[in-house]
Every structure is written in C-alpha cells, then in structure tokens.
Amino acid sequence: MTKIGIILGSTRPGRNGEAVAKWVYDVAAKRTDAEFELVDLLDYNLPHLDEAIPPSMGQYSQPHTIEWAKKIDSFDGFVFVTPEYNHSTSGALKNAIDFLFKEWNNKAAGFVGYGSVGGARAVEHLRLIAGELMLADVRAQVLLSLATDFENYSTFLPSERQEQALHAVLDQTVTWSKALETVRKTA
C-alpha cells in the first residue's frame, strides 16, 4: 500500500498548523487508495543541522538523524503542511528537510499552506527545494488564509471549497507516488 506522510512543518507554540495538519489527516484517513500518517516535527526534536558530512553522502552519524531518516524513508510521498513566516516556509521545516537527501528522492510532494496570503510564498519556496531533492511536486495545492479560513486568526474553520482542493492535492500526490514506484525501485 502506498504510504503518504503528512508533515506538520511548524514547531511554534500555539501553532495553527496543528489544526490544519489534523484536518488534512482526518480527510486523508477516510481514503482507501493509500495509508496516511501524521508526522509532527516536534516529535523528532531535531537541532540545527549538526551532521558534518553533507546529507547527499548518506553517512548520518547522529541518532536523531538516523531516526528521522528511517521515518522519511518509510514513505512513498508527502503532503507538507507549512506556515508562511516572512515570505517563506518555517525554519524548523527547512532544517528538517535539509537533514536528509536520498530519503526524499523520487517521491511525490503535495502542499497545504496557511498564512496571510494562504502560505503561497512558503509553498513556492518548498517547490524550489523539492526540485533539488528530486521530489516531484504536484500542481494542486491548498492555500488557507488566516483571514477567511480561521476565526480570529486562530480557530481553523475550512470551507467545503478547501476540502475539495485538499482532495485534489491528495489525488495527485497518491497518483504520482504510485507512478514513481518504478523509479524508486531502479534508482
């Protein structure tokens, strides 16, 4: 069965991303075309990148890196739930991505952003990063506005339109994850 990791890309206290990621997981969990797992960066307690050898060499020395690598390697694709901080993704998510290389390769990536302009700039930055990591980013995306998809900028209340957009992200992510299976096997 295809496995998709839903990565919660914020570690900030009081983060809106927790409700968003839970919503993504709850919608995804009703599907039968893949298995979905919520991956919270808080559970991995990754410090600032502390590996001496570049991740592309695959020679991890730190126990936290090895644990993180095993988790990411277990998936066929990902849905990244990202806040937008200062016109980009969170430092915590960028740091977590930077720890690894081959574990991301030849897998699909979908994006759910949230912020003042729906997290669009954070998603665009993640698309650039995905290209370097040989992650195939899907076209569909969910962009959640703090002004319209949250009450008082903090209580998450997604519209039916957003759930339809999420299904498009999940459809494409699962389809591309399955399509890339052959590439992963031969790489």
Structural write-up:
The chain is an alpha/beta fold and 187 residues long. It is built from 6 helices and 7 strands, in the order E-H-E-H-E-H-E-H-E-E-E-H-H. The strands form 2 sheets. It has a 5-stranded parallel sheet, sandwiched between helices. The longest helix is centred in the last third of the chain and has 20 residues, at 160-179. The mean pLDDT is 97.
Mean pLDDT over all positions: 97
Shape field: globular
Distance between the termini: 20 Å
Q: Supply the helix-strand structural class.
A: alpha/beta
Overview in brief:
The protein is α/β, with parallel strands linked by helices and 187 residues long. The protein has helices at 17-29, 63-73, 91-98, 120-132, 160-179, 181-186, and strands at 3-8, 35-40, 77-83, 107-115, 135-145, 150-151, 155-156.
Key descriptive features of the protein:
single chain; 187 residues; alpha/beta; five-stranded parallel beta sheet; two-stranded antiparallel ribbon; 6 helices; 7 strands; globular
Write the topology of this structure.
Layout: E1 3-8, H1 17-29, E2 35-40, H2 63-73, E3 77-83, H3 91-98, E4 107-115, H4 120-132, E5 135-145, E6 150-151, E7 155-156, H5 160-179, H6 181-186
Parallel strand pairs: 1-2, 1-3, 3-4, 4-5
Antiparallel strand pairs: 6-7
